């Protein structure tokens, strides 16, 4: 078992996958291969990743991927238009995680890569509304705190304020690709 960040986040996410992914599901993991892809594969999940294409422009291509389950793990906040991505996902099951908007921290913007920004800093209710409007019914919600071992006021606030929000949702059957 993992203990600290990002390991705490990995454990929380892995526990949710174990709860909702069926053994025969093929997972489309939005985004390029990353360290958590390896964790999923080590736990015998069948993973397909997107190739790094800009999903704001190429969301229609998602329809052509043969997957029964989708993971959108901390990627939707990086999209200008996550609604179209959510509407065009293959399969009928979704596990999505986001870092939640925090009142004591500014919106994320990388100092190294100008493309690495959060266009959206969601609160849980906003993310729920986005999913429901995109045709998903939320089945399960889960929040957890950051796993940082740093010292200071912000790290203390992060230990007591939920930082991550996960939603397992199923597509509303008559909503696909409207």
Automatic annotation (TrEMBL):
Keyword Transferase: yes
Keyword Transferase appears in the UniProt entry: yes
Gene3D superfamilies per the UniProt record, alphabetical: Vaccinia Virus protein VP39
Stated name of the protein: Methyltransferase
Gene Ontology molecular-function annotations: methyltransferase activity
Annotated source species: Faecalibacter rhinopitheci
Top-rank taxon: Bacteria
Keywords in alphabetical order: Methyltransferase, Transferase
Family matches, as InterPro entries: SAM-dependent_MTases_sf (IPR029063)
GO term, biological process aspect, one: methylation
SUPFAM superfamilies, sorted: S-adenosyl-L-methionine-dependent methyltransferases (SSF53335)
């Amino acid at each position: 078992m993992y203990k600290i960040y990002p390991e705490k986040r990995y454990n929380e996410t892995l526990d949710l996958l174990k709860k909702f992914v069926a053994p025969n599901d093929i997972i489309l993991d939005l985004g390029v291969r990353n360290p958590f892809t390896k964790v999923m594969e080590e736990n015998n999940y069948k993973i397909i990743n997107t190739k790094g294409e800009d999903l704001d422009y190429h969301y229609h291509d998602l329809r052509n991927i043969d997957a029964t389950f989708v993971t959108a793990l901390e990627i939707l906040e990086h999209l200008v238009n996550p609604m179209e991505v959510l509407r065009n996902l293959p399969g009928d099951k979704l596990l999505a995680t986001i870092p939640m908007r925090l009142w004591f921290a500014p919106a994320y913007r990388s100092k190294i890569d100008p493309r690495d920004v959060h266009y959206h800093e969601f609160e849980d209710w906003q993310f729920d509304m986005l999913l429901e409007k995109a045709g998903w019914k939320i089945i399960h919600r889960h929040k957890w705190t950051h796993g940082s071992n740093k010292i200071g006021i912000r790290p203390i606030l992060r230990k007591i304020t939920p930082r991550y929000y996960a939603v397992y949702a199923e597509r509303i059957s008559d909503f696909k690709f409207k």
